[in-house]
Write a structure and sequence with these properties.
By secondary structure, this protein is mostly helical. It has one domain. 47% of the residues lie in helices and 0% in strands. It contains eight helices and no strands. Helix 1 crosses helix 3, helix 3 runs antiparallel to helix 4 and helix 3 crosses helix 8. It is globular. Bound molecules: fe (ii) ion (2 copies). The site of one fe (ii) ion has 6 residues, from helix 3 and helix 8.
Length: 190
């Protein structure tokens, strides 16, 4: 996947958002995004999407990979939920990776990850139980308290034996696939 420009990527993002335009609170969520650095922020300091617009690029990639998997395998979930989870699962990264004056990427420590994304979205849009699960477990085993260098948000037991829908695993795969393959291609495959 090629990243062309912030403008082009925003066009792609807004297109992906179309299916959500009737969702209660969604216009307010978009308005909130405009007050943050979401559209220009990188997705990380030195890993995937570490460039201007990288977070939006990653979000578009995850949403589209997840959408394609759902279509290809006839999985039962609405396109609305697919796009909401894909486009906003990492909204917690807004304000975390500010560009410094020299162009390098800074880091503002914030606690939590997926649960913070749920918190941000829920200020405007009421998430379904399934959407909450998909976003909560999107880090897969990387988000387990037992492994995570940043603390984690759930236990291994919870992710192995909890009621989390198998779509959480498909979404985690989409997130990994997008960050390892699609997000990287604009950086010569790194
Ligand atoms: Fe994430
Ligand atoms: Fe992600």
């Amino acid at each position: 996947m090629k990243f062309e420009s912030v403008e082009k990527e925003k066009e792609r993002f807004m297109n992906n958002c179309l299916v959500l335009k009737e969702r209660k609170g969604f216009p307010e969520l978009l308005k909130f995004l405009e007050t943050t650095d979401f559209f220009e922020a990188p997705a990380s300091t030195r890993f995937h999407g570490c460039h201007k617009g990288g977070l939006m690029f990653h979000s578009n990639n995850v949403a589209e990979v997840f959408h394609n998997l759902v279509k290809e395998h006839n999985l039962e979930i609405s396109t609305e939920s697919v796009m909401l989870c894909g486009l906003f699962h990492d909204i917690c990264k807004t304000g975390m990776y500010p560009f410094k004056e020299d162009g390098s990427i800074g880091y503002v420590k914030k606690t939590g990850h997926a649960l913070r994304s749920i918190e941000y979205i829920s200020k405007f849009v009421e998430l379904t139980g399934e959407e909450k699960e998909i976003i909560k477990y999107h880090m897969g085993y990387y988000g387990c308290k037992e492994f995570s260098p940043w603390g984690g948000e759930y236990t291994i037991k919870e992710i192995c034996t909890g009621n989390n829908n198998f779509l959480t695993a498909v979404f985690h795969y989409a997130d990994m696939f997008a960050s390892r393959i699609y997000d990287a291609e604009d950086k010569d495959g790194i």
